[in-house]
Design a protein that fits this description.
There is one protein chain. The protein has three helices and five strands; from the N terminus they run αβββββαα. By secondary structure, the chain is an alpha+beta fold. The chain has one domain (19-129). The protein has a five-stranded antiparallel sheet with strand order 1-2-3-4-5. The longest helix has 22 residues, at 20-41. The radius of gyration is 18 Å and the shape is globular. The mean pLDDT is 90.
Length: 138
């Protein structure tokens, strides 16, 4: 039996279904990270990234990561699990989980609930302070 060494099948979709809600959720996470970076942290020593993680039963994991460039330190601020069809999105942050079943709930969590969380606020203050600390002052 001859085995084909053709890997072009990786380029073919495994499902004919397209889920625009998934793309919208990922875009909203990217917008949140950009706003957090530019409007909240606003430091050349800090950067907020969206990093894909593992695919789990709840969906594709995306991590909102704050990088302290001057210290070589990274902190995962929150994780979002996005299923193929976009919803429900599971958000995991500071030992809590929340589920957003639609765009309005997702926006409420990202822009109201998470920013008002005392633990998140405390972490962001600590990351700002760390970013402003000279590396040799550790």
């Amino acid at each position: 039996m001859t085995v084909s060494r053709d890997l072009t099948r990786f380029n073919q979709p495994t499902s004919p279904e397209v889920f625009p809600e998934y793309d919208k959720v990922v875009q909203e996470l990217e917008t949140f990270a950009t706003k957090l970076d530019s409007e909240v942290l606003a430091s050349p020593n800090l950067e907020v990234l969206i990093e894909p993680g593992f695919k789990v039963s709840a969906g594709q994991q995306f991590k909102v990561v704050v990088v302290v460039k001057t210290q070589g330190f990274r902190d995962v601020l929150l994780r979002a699990y996005v299923p193929d069809n976009g919803y429900p999105v599971v958000l995991s942050f500071v030992g809590q989980e929340a589920e957003a079943t639609n765009e309005q709930m997702l926006l409420q969590h990202l822009y109201d609930i998470i920013p008002s969380n005392a633990d998140i606020q405390s972490r962001l203050r600590a990351l700002r302070a760390l970013a402003d600390t000279p590396r040799d002052a550790e």
